[in-house]
């Protein structure tokens, strides 16, 4: 599988990142191990998680996904084969939230312990913290990089202005810069990335790893009516907003290209993202090993210029 450079970090990653937010939530530990084994065997070595996964589940406190990944890497002895991305900044309860240096210093130790590793390849600010000066946050990351605890940093859920501000501060002060941006971006949700944020990423050679790349499952094509919402825990929560004429137009476009390429609609939707020059790797997840085949197929699917343009038009 051909790798792509992630910004200027020196890291190279597969064209698809496996999202691990399902571990400990809709996928138990044993099934998570099976999934991770399959993913790694297929060359999908880039894993994305966060300290807060899956705190939203009743009885969970966060760290469940990191803990499972850590146990798996320990059991398999494969840390050197994995490009590991996690995040800090979302509310973990008890005032543990944001991007203040003292909190980052504590949070990274918690993540390293759960992940049972000495270092994190990509450590990401999960969301912007406007109460903390960006130079303080970047200086905290600088210490962690110099200590060998993290290799590179990224951002998620930042506006174009705040990302550009962070890049300018890093350059002016000799601090590490955000090498990746994690925006919501898919055929179903284009406006939050296309435009100003995309321009900042392109102008500064910032890698882009997209979340909700399949619009919470809508772009798999398995949700076509309200009766389908019960097909997954995410369905009823996320899918209804896409059930409109534009959403149906997108599914029709996906069906058309899927028929032409003999691929699943989900693979086509991911291949559309991979065809965008500024996108390094869409993040996508799976709950069963057989679904991993669709993700792998997406990395091998090269859409024609005409197919990309038709999907652009269908999702306009």
Automatic annotation (TrEMBL):
Domain NADP-dependent oxidoreductase per the UniProt entry, residue ranges: 15-314
Highest taxon of source: Bacteria
Cited Pfam families: Aldo_ket_red (PF00248)
InterPro entries xrefs: AKR, AKR_Detox_Biosynth, NAD(P)_OxRdtase_dom_sf, NADP_OxRdtase_dom
PANTHER family in alphabetical order: NADH-SPECIFIC METHYLGLYOXAL REDUCTASE-RELATED, OXIDOREDUCTASE-RELATED
Protein name, entry field: Aryl-alcohol dehydrogenase-like predicted oxidoreductase
Native source species: Bradyrhizobium elkanii
């Amino acid at each position: 599988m051909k790798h792509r450079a992630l910004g200027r970090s020196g890291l190279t990653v597969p064209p698809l990142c496996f999202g691990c937010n399902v571990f400990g939530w809709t996928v138990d530990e044993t099934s998570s191990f099976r999934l991770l084994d399959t993913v790694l065997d297929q060359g999908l070595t880039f894993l994305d998680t966060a300290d807060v996964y899956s705190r939203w589940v009743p009885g969970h406190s966060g760290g469940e996904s990191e803990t499972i990944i850590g146990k798996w890497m320990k059991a398999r002895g494969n840390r050197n084969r994995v490009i590991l991305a996690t995040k800090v900044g979302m509310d973990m309860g008890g005032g543990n939230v944001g991007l203040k240096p003292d909190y980052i210093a504590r949070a990274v130790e918690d993540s390293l312990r759960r992940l049972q590793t000495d270092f994190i390849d990509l450590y990401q600010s999960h969301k912007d913290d406007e109460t903390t000066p960006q130079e303080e946050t970047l200086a905290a990351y600088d210490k962690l990089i110099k200590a060998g605890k993290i290799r590179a940093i990224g951002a998620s859920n930042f506006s174009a202005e705040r990302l550009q501000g962070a890049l300018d501060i890093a350059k002016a002060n000799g601090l590490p810069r955000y090498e990746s941006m994690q925006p919501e971006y898919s055929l179903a949700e284009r406006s939050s990335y296309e435009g100003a944020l995309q321009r900042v990423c392109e102008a500064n050679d910032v890698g882009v790893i997209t979340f909700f790349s399949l619009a919470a499952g809508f772009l798999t094509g398995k949700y076509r009516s309200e009766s389908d919402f019960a097909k997954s825990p995410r369905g009823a929560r996320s899918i209804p907003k896409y059930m409109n004429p534009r959403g149906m137009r997108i599914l029709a476009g996906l069906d058309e290209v899927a028929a032409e390429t003999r691929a699943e609609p989900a693979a086509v939707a991911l291949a559309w993202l991979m065809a965008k020059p500024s996108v390094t790797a869409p993040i996508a997840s799976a709950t069963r090993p057989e679904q991993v085949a669709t993700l792998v197929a997406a990395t091998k699917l090269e859409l024609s210029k005409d197919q990309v343009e038709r999907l652009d038009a269908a999702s306009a």
